[in-house]
Amino acid sequence: MNKDNGRVFNFSAGPSMLPLEVMEDVAKELTNYMGCGQSVMEMSHRSKEFVAITEEAEKNLRELMNIPDNYKVLFLQGGGTLQFSMVPMNLLKKSKKADYIVTGTWAKKAAAEAKKFGDIKIVASSEDTTFSYIPKVNKEDFREDADYVHITFNNTIYGTHYGYIPDTGDIPLVADMSSCILSEEIDVTKFGLIYAGAQKNIAPAGVTIVIIKEDLIGFAPVDIPTYLDYKVHAENDSMYNTPPCFTIYVAGEVFKHILKNGGIPPLNKLDIEKAGKLYQFIDNSKLYKCPVQEDSRSLMNVVFVTGDAELDKKFIAEAKAAGLVNLGGHRSIGGMRASIYNAMPAEGVDALINFMKKFEEENAK
Ligand SMILES: Cc1ncc(COP(=O)(O)O)c(C=O)c1O
Fold first, then answer.
1. 160-172 pLDDT, tens per residue?
2. What is the domain partition of the chain in residue ranges?
3. Ligand 1 geometric centre to CA of 104 (Å)
4. Which residues are marked as active site?
5. What is the pLDDT of residue 3?
6. What's the rounded Cα separation, in Å, for the pair 31 and 287?
7. Which atom in ligand 1 lies closest to the alpha carbon of residue 14?
8. Is 0.85 surpassed by the pTM of this model?
9. How many whole angstroms from 3 Cα to the centroid of ligand 1?
10. CATH superfamily, domain at 264-362
11. Domain 24-260, second-level architecture
């Protein structure tokens, strides 16, 4: 618990903590945005105020991620989940083949959804070790005529992350970056399409960011639902229908906040320090174990176990009582998971490590 503001340290995998400063600023203008007499929640999405909010959010995201002009930035709805379908519906344009690397539950779901639309090949998978690592792949592993390759850059449930960007040659690379966007500098030009739900590093749930290279737009079959065609959103500046206005506004405030504080590099430095401390503590401890191979560990989601399911439950309950909440692993795998996204302060990780030390002493066999 943070004594200054009465807030707990929330280790939820998403929705998750947002920068306090941003939420306080949002609260200040919640009922009257910049003197216009209305809340952003009440505003027409066609109003000049809201159009300015969206344009600024896009401009700032472009600056933060260094997104080239030949990429469109779209603010959509439907979460990462809808992208599992929109990607194949729009990108299976020639051979109708796509290659997927399966590194966890979300990657598996993405591949399963794509199978409804084309010839999908799982070219690599780490399921043999319960997704404890990121497989190494190279250009020769992909089908030459594949329309795209899909990866899940950070695996929220299993706590793994790509330490490299797979070389797919001329085949467009599509990445689900829902749980790591804005945590590290990435070269957008290496990707054909990047998507991310907002509810981890960006904003409350409700908006999904899609960054797509222009030459991949315009190939969707005519008979798909209008909303599912990227071209429709690109041509309408994400205003084809009513967008998730308030979430886009908060996302824009988060982008401004990050820019004001020096952009992604200082955040990444802090993320490396936070995760580094936690992994080091786990690796040196007798009680806790991280099942993830060292070169595949995520900076955002730190997974660990005691090896005793009852003790794990006790840990989660006692941590909660100490103001360290949402430390349970995903319901599919159990154990513990500390999601330490950009907005988790270093003090939160320190408080967790102190709690883990105390719990270990009290529960030594
Ligand atoms: C990596 C990843 N992809 C996709 C999803 C699904 O996202 P949504 O719930 O926004 O549809 C999640 C959810 O946590 C995720 O972590």
1. 999 999 999 999 9
2. 24-260, 264-362
3. 11
4. 106, 176, 200
5. 67
6. 49
7. 14
8. yes
9. 32
10. Aspartate Aminotransferase, domain 1 (3.90.1150.10)
11. 3-Layer(aba) Sandwich (3.40)
